[in-house]
Design goal:
335 residues; alpha/beta; 10 helices; 37% helix; 13% strand; disordered N terminus
Length: 335
């Protein structure tokens, strides 16, 4: 595939279609102490003679809930799935540089058997292109609704330094590969990462590559409103799902705040954590945020995101389920 890159060969994650969502507020790289090599987003150039393909979503979830579970545990997975299934339209399964889990196709099969519809995340960090193609084919055969195609965080220096990081592809090229294989490709975008004013244009490039839907990283209602306006002006027409941060204690708030490119209001965090009942306060604050996000033109759904609680995956799932019910009750739509 032919693309233009702002810094060919110089990105530490070998990205061609950059910048990633982890660019820090000062414009520096999340991996090395240097400026991001993509001062402007790279433009997608369709391969000569190959028509653009986009595999549409079967349905756009109004509520897409993060699926957090004990790695390598089918029993906890089933328990968390049972708690979430009645409340959400689909679950989003992440991939973490410091917490490996079942291979995506196996993971998806377990979740389908447990009664939830999974959106699986595929990262380019730990798989070469052949393995990515194999996972995509397996997920297609399982009938998975969508695959979130992301470059992936680089592994921290103290996490398995003996393991090679691959990065054969980046998230945009993986989305094109997913569409070519016959899978609906979801992509991520970070409204608050530099260059902020061009993040809508970057999402448009992912749409051109074959993305069927976008899932945003955490950002304030004001930031998402500005991003959606810029995205529409750039030509984005795919549905967009905005993230709702849910936290009820110090650990679940810190886990969200530690990620590059994520925007949390410190005052709002303290208001929840200092409340006499932080669980009730956290659910209420997230429900208000969800309502405001769903009112933004172009936002088709919300992603209930985060661990929700330090008291265990099953308890966190119960909080997310209650939040989903609260969102539905205030949504004004039929479900």
């Amino acid at each position: 595939m032919r693309m233009r890159s702002a810094g060919p060969g110089s990105c530490p994650k070998r990205m061609v279609m950059g910048p990633c969502g982890g660019v820090r507020a000062d414009g520096s790289c999340e991996v090395l102490p240097q400026p991001c090599v993509f001062p402007v987003p790279a433009e997608w150039t369709e391969p000569a003679g190959v028509p653009l393909r986009t595999v549409p979503l079967r349905t756009v979830p109004r509520i897409l809930t993060d699926f957090s579970s004990e790695p390598w545990s089918a029993a906890i997975l089933a328990s968390v799935a049972a708690a979430l299934a009645p409340s959400c339209d689909a679950v989003l399964v992440g991939e973490h540089q410091d917490r490996p889990d079942f291979p995506p196709a196996l993971h998806a099969s377990l979740l389908l058997a447990a009664g939830v519809r999974p959106w699986m995340t595929l990262t380019c960090r730990d798989r070469n292109r052949i393995v990515l193609e194999a996972e995509l084919a397996g997920l297609r055969e399982l009938g998975v609704d969508a695959v979130l195609c992301v470059t992936g965080d680089a592994r921290a220096y103290d996490v398995r330094p003996d393991v090679t990081q691959v990065f054969d592809l980046d998230g945009t090229r993986l989305a094109a590969l997913a569409a070519a294989v016959g899978v609906a490709a979801a992509v991520a975008e970070t409204p608050t990462a530099p260059p902020r004013q061009l993040r809508g244009f970057r999402l448009f490039q992912k749409q051109r590559a074959g993305a069927a839907v976008a899932v945003l990283n955490h950002a304030s209602v004001t930031s998402v409103t500005g991003f959606m306006a810029a995205a529409a002006q750039a030509g984005v027409t795919i549905p967009v799902i905005a993230a709702v941060a849910v936290f009820t204690d110090e650990l679940s708030a810190a886990a969200l705040g530690a990620l590059p490119g994520l925007e949390l209001d410190p005052a709002a965090v303290r208001a929840v954590l200092d409340h006499p009942d932080p669980v009730a306060a956290g659910i209420a604050a997230a429900a208000r945020e969800a309502g405001a996000l769903l009112a933004i033109p172009g936002v088709a759904g919300v992603n209930i995101s985060g661990l929700a609680s330090a008291r265990g995956y099953e308890y966190g799932a119960q909080i997310k389920a209650e939040l989903a019910q609260r969102i539905r009750a205030g949504d004004g739509r039929d479900h």
